[in-house]
């Protein structure tokens, strides 16, 4: 397909994208399809969209002080329709699935991918099969979304990495269109997080973009988007990128620490179930992207993750545990001097506070550093006065 180069001129793109925000067409207003020149060459009637993207970018001054940087903005991807950034990838992936004539879409998931795919498949009228780890490692909130949207849901006696191997092995035999982040259209949709963020910053790139890393789809998508924006002249300089893994699921961080040594899969374990991944499929693309942006990869322990989450929550924004890994890692990189005190930082919160209520409730019920435990009182005025007096 011959590309009309003038349509990719930076000034033209900025104007076209800004104008679409005023449009009444759902695809123009979508925070993904508004940027469609850089996402996927589909016709509008092929798209399955439900108002994804257009998420908030919040200044977080108290959190910036806690972390120790001059400026911190939180891009809250939990504000997507099913509560995580996965919707940006799924609107692209499911639209392409329809175009290709697929009848059933499928994924392995730690929870959010299945919640999102189940919703978009229902809208598109496609069959949907999801494989999630059985038991405590999939949050009840996420599992309930997949069930409610009507996906055929297999809770397997194995972890996410095993589920992904199985669904990949069976995809062609069962004629399934696979929508894990091995699917390149997912990543194309997720690039819009960076377009939207940079547009909101008037195309003035921050010093750092910080995000959690699990299967490394976002790491791949963000670095690709930033390099494309730089190449097209939409931004005048490249930010650096900091990827944060949970300490118990950190093969990418280990590869980085070993001078980009060959990635050694691990048996993953962390409270941040969305990044409980030991063999990230996107690591080749992600490592190329991190290198191109002079990026860093680090880890955060579960305690650091949950303390950071408590402060993101208390700031009035809120996120699920995996999202807070980014903030915990940012604080660590700042303390180690990797990130400077005068840095301008954007951290991406990947999922909504309500995605994992059990993790939040158990943090606040315990003796954690920032716990805000509920106070049980008898149902009379004196008891309430006594309880408040003791505060
Ligand atoms: C999927 C997910 C991640 C991990 O993202 P990758 O692109 O796989 O690295 C992090 N946080 C949340 C909330 C997620 O749903």
Q: What structural category characterises the helix and strand content?
A: alpha/beta
Alpha carbon gyration radius: 21 Å
Strand order of the biggest β-sheet: 1-2-10-7-8-9
Average pLDDT for all residues: 95
The CA-CA distance between the termini, in Å, is 69 Å
Tell me about the largest β-sheet: 6 strands, mixed
Bound molecules: pyridoxal-5'-phosphate
CATH class of the domain at 57-83 and 188-365 equals Alpha Beta
CATH topology value of the domain at 57-83 and 188-365: Rossmann fold
Spatial shape: globular
How are helices and strands ordered from N to C?
HHEHEHEHEHEHEHHEHEHHEHHEHH
Q: How large a portion of the residues is in β-strands, by DSSP E? A: 5-15%
Task: Please bin the fraction of helical residues.
Answer: 40-55%
- Contiguous helical run count: 16
CATH architecture of the domain at 57-83 and 188-365: 3-Layer(aba) Sandwich
Count of distinct strands: 10
Poorly predicted sequence stretches spanning 5 or more consecutive residues = none
Descriptors:
6-stranded mixed sheet, alpha/beta, about 400 residues, Rossmann fold, binds pyridoxal-5'-phosphate, 16 helices, 10 strands, 4-stranded parallel sheet
């Amino acid at each position: 397909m011959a590309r009309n180069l003038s349509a990719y001129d930076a000034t033209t793109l900025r104007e076209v994208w800004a104008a679409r925000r005023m449009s009444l067409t759902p695809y123009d207003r979508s925070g993904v399809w508004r940027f469609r020149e850089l996402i996927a060459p589909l016709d509008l009637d092929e798209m399955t969209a439900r108002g994804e993207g257009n998420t908030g970018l919040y200044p977080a001054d108290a959190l910036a002080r806690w972390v120790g940087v001059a400026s911190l903005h939180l891009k809250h991807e939990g504000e997507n329709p099913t509560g995580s950034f996965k919707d940006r990838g799924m609107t692209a992936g499911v639209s392409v699935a329809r175009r290709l004539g697929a009848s059933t879409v499928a994924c392995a998931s730690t929870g959010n991918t299945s919640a999102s795919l189940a919703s978009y498949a229902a809208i598109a009228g496609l069959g949907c099969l999801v494989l999630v780890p059985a038991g405590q490692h999939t949050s009840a909130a996420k599992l309930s979304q997949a069930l409610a949207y009507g996906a055929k849901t297999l809770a397997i006696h194995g972890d996410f990495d095993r589920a992904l191997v199985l669904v990949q092995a069976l995809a062609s035999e069962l004629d399934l269109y696979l929508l894990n982040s091995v699917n390149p259209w997912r990543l194309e949709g997720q690039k819009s997080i960076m377009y939207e963020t940079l547009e909101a910053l008037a195309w003035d790139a921050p010093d750092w973009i910080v995000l959690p890393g699990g299967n490394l789809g976002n790491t791949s998508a963000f670095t690709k988007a930033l390099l494309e924006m730089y190449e097209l002249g939409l931004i005048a300089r490249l930010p650096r990128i900091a990827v944060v893994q949970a300490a118990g699921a950190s093969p990418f961080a280990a590869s980085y620490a070993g001078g980009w040594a060959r990635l050694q899969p691990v048996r993953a374990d962390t409270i941040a179930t969305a990044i409980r991944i030991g063999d990230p499929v996107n690591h080749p693309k992600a490592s190329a992207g991190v290198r191109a942006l002079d990026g860093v990869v680090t880890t955060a322990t579960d305690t650091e993750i949950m303390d950071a989450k408590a402060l993101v929550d208390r700031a009035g924004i809120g996120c699920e545990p995996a999202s807070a890994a980014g903030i915990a890692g940012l604080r660590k990189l700042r303390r180690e001097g990797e990130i400077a005190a005068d840095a301008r930082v954007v951290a991406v919160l990947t999922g909504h506070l309500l995605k994992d209520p059990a993790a939040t409730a158990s943090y606040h019920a315990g003796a954690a550093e920032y716990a805000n435990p509920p106070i049980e009182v008898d149902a009379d005025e004196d008891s309430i006065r006594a309880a408040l007096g003791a505060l």
